[in-house]
Amino acid sequence: MQVPANLEKTNVEKAMPVAERDTVLVADDHGLYRSGFSFLLRDRMGFRSVIEASSFDAALDRLAETPNVELALFDLAMPGISGPEGLRVVKEAYPSIRVAIVSGSEERNDVVKAVAMGLNGYVPKSLADDEIVGALNDILDGRVFVPRFMTSGNAEHRAKLASSDTPAAKRDPGGGATNKAISPRQRDVLDCVRRGLSNKEIARELDIAEGTVKIHLAALFSHFGARNRTELATRS
């Protein structure tokens, strides 16, 4: 008996299951987006566990308490994060974890900074599901993903990127500080810095990992445009 072509195709698809992966972190302050993204990561990419966070502080807590995280995905507009710079130390603190940005921003400056900070990729939210899956597979395979518009001649994207070529000093007259408010946990760390506490003492007082303290400090240095603790304490 001849097997219908569509049935053959169905059987082939069933015979090719998605490779199973361990744990991924999705850090985004939009609950609906997190839910949809989490389904995609489980259904299309085979992650057994998806842990979610709605702020930078919560994301760091999840990373500190969760073993076997393979991939950590951060939104740039999330509370407590001041840009790609704040994620550099996340990468340094967790070298075995692939760290990438999944953002609605398509500014060239954000992409360039993400790559310069040693992150594993920058994935625009505007991509189709198949493109997002492909981008994340590239990242998990050890490649650095950057969006196609970075090298595209598309006129619409060139117009979008033109605004991001404005010198930093013009965009940020405060000498490095952004308009985003720091998170409650970062405020606690800042208070400890003003009191002269070491990283180990801050970790003990706030009951967080010392590596997490370093990450918060990096975000604070970026936010206030400070180069060291003294500048941080005086500028803030």
Automatic annotation (TrEMBL):
<dbReference type="GO" id="GO:0003677">
    <property type="term" value="F:DNA binding"/>
</dbReference>
<dbReference type="GO" id="GO:0006355">
    <property type="term" value="P:regulation of DNA-templated transcription"/>
</dbReference>
<feature type="domain" description="Response regulatory">
    <location>
        <begin position="23"/>
        <end position="140"/>
    </location>
</feature>
<dbReference type="InterPro" id="IPR016032">
    <property type="entry name" value="Sig_transdc_resp-reg_C-effctor"/>
</dbReference>
<dbReference type="GO" id="GO:0000160">
    <property type="term" value="P:phosphorelay signal transduction system"/>
</dbReference>
<feature type="modified residue" description="4-aspartylphosphate">
    <location>
        <position position="75"/>
    </location>
</feature>
<dbReference type="Pfam" id="PF00072">
    <property type="entry name" value="Response_reg"/>
</dbReference>
<protein>
    <submittedName>
        <fullName>DNA-binding response regulator, NarL/FixJ family, contains REC and HTH domains</fullName>
    </submittedName>
</protein>
<dbReference type="InterPro" id="IPR001789">
    <property type="entry name" value="Sig_transdc_resp-reg_receiver"/>
</dbReference>
<dbReference type="Pfam" id="PF00196">
    <property type="entry name" value="GerE"/>
</dbReference>
<keyword id="KW-0597">Phosphoprotein</keyword>
<feature type="region of interest" description="Disordered">
    <location>
        <begin position="157"/>
        <end position="183"/>
    </location>
</feature>
<dbReference type="InterPro" id="IPR000792">
    <property type="entry name" value="Tscrpt_reg_LuxR_C"/>
</dbReference>
<keyword id="KW-0238">DNA-binding</keyword>
<dbReference type="InterPro" id="IPR051015">
    <property type="entry name" value="EvgA-like"/>
</dbReference>
<dbReference type="InterPro" id="IPR058245">
    <property type="entry name" value="NreC/VraR/RcsB-like_REC"/>
</dbReference>
<dbReference type="InterPro" id="IPR011006">
    <property type="entry name" value="CheY-like_superfamily"/>
</dbReference>
<feature type="domain" description="HTH luxR-type">
    <location>
        <begin position="175"/>
        <end position="236"/>
    </location>
</feature>
